[in-house]
Amino acid sequence: SRGRVALRKGDSEQLPSDRLAPNTVPGLAGVVEIVAGGTSEEPAGGHTCARLAKGDVRCWGDNAVGQVGDGSQTTRKTPVAVTLAAPAIQLSVGYRHACAILVDDTVKCWGGNEQAQLGLGDLRNRGDGPNEMGAQLPRVDLGPGAKVAAVSAGAYHTCAVLVDGRLKCWGTNAYGQLGLGTTESHGHAAGTMGTQLAAVDFGGRRRPVQVTVGQWSTCARTHDGAVACFGVNGDGQLGIGTRTSRGGAPGDMGNGTAYVDFGNGRRATSVAFGSSHVCAVLDDGTARCWGKNVYGELGLGDQVSRGGTPATSVASLPPIDVGSAQPVVALSPRVNHTCALLGDGAVRCWGMGANGNLGNESPLARGDEAGEMGGALPPTLLSGNARATYLASGPGGLFSCALVAGGVKCWGLASYGALGLGDSRDRGNVAGQMGDTLPFVSLSSSRPIATP
Q1: Where are the alpha helices (H) located in 207-280, listed in sequence order?
Q2: 3 state DSSP class of 374
Q3: CA distance 394 to 124
Q4: Shortest CA distance to 300 belongs to which of 319, 327, 315?
């Protein structure tokens, strides 16, 4: 049935419920999902998309290659409607492309396609000119009858979990980020998608229920809470105790798949990729992050990368001290910072703060020195005592967004109108910019969804 990965006898885990709009809360103006993208290659860029309750999609920000999906290359500093020819039930935004699962469980992707990240059998961008969206935008061919349960867009590759429990990835594959045991790309030419695109082999009975894509790497969470990462590994972002890339050579996958060891029998309940660091919420409500750590984005009080050597293994990491006894509900790693949503709806962010991306009305970094986490970590100031219900997911960007009572609020670097507020003025690094002063993003749902 829609929203679940096929399970075998004895399995207990299902696809995370966030696929089917669990964030619908009265007063949120119908917003049920928000996703934001960017990359460390161009951290000043980025675009954002929101899904409304009836499946409408709105996007804004950098639009150089059509990633906003309005048939132009014009930067959009306020949200515009995206026509997909059918309601969307899940979104994902990468560096300069975006994807949506539609109500028929198929996927459409638009924006930049220089590395075949759209999976359409060519290298032509979509959405940057007229007559390229809606019914004119092809569905991604993942094989006869393939139904998609979850999709994740990265820098130059994209992955989808199918309802039958398979994972398929396409786009560039120079580091093995497609998880196929080769470095052959897929999606760039005829005959490289559909049945010609093999599923990732995790060995044994493990099957993915969640996938998250970073800049040049991929992580998947399996039905039993294990996490396997593959692709580039120069910063230890695969979390396997080495800095050797995996996924591109025979023997790297299947029974040779390397899994992240969280220690003490802990399992992951969710996993999220930034650009070059990864974060996971564990089954005890604590959080761990590993990989690149230039600005303290791992939240460990230093600037030492983790996960790339036995001495910095993920199993050796302490829980991130977010300064609250509340459990961590969700994590949103970005280019150089990380935000956490806690059980009481509070948001705490750490890492680089120069452009206000921590949302605490200070430009100072947090988490890169001792004594800056825990009780010393200031909260992100959203709107009075309102609870946040959702943090934007995505592989990068120097800004963040959250759903709170009343709608969407975004803060941080505003280049290309990434905050959706009609200007390019950063928010969050100066006193008086956050809380009730921070405007809501206007997401009118008056425009109807086009039909095929």
Answers
A1: none
A2: helix
A3: 23
A4: 319
The span from the CA of 332 to the CA of 319, in Å, is 16
3-class DSSP assignment, residue 202: coil
- Give which of 123, 121, 53, 51 is closest to 93, Cα–Cα: 51
68-109 tens-digit pLDDT: 999 999 999 999 999 999 999 999 999 999 999 999 999 999
pLDDT tens-digit profile of 392-403? 988 878 899 999
Cα–Cα dist 338/320, whole Å = 11
Q: Which residues pair with 97 in a beta bridge?
A: 111
Cα–Cα nearest to 32, from 24, 41, 43, 42: 24
b/e per residue 223-259 (b: at least 16 CB within 10 A): bebbbbbbbbbbbbbbbbbebebbbbeeebbeeebbe
CA distance 179 to 253: 7
Burial 266-304 (b: 16+ CB within 10 A, else e): bbbbbbbbbbbbbbbbbeeebbbbbbbbbbbbbbbbebe
Q: Is this structure's pTM higher than 0.90?
A: yes
CA 261 to CA 280: how far, in whole Å? 12
Q: Of 430, 410, 428, whose CA–CA distance to 418 is shortest?
A: 410
Sequence-ordered strand ranges (E) for 154-296: 157-162, 167-171, 208-213, 217-222, 227-231, 268-273, 277-282, 287-291
Q: What is the 3-state secondary structure (H, E, C) of 20-62?
A: HCCCCCCCCCCEEEEEEECCCCCCCCCEEEEEECCCCEEEEEC
Q: Hey, what are 102's tokens?
A: 């539609």
Backbone Cα Rg of the chain: 20
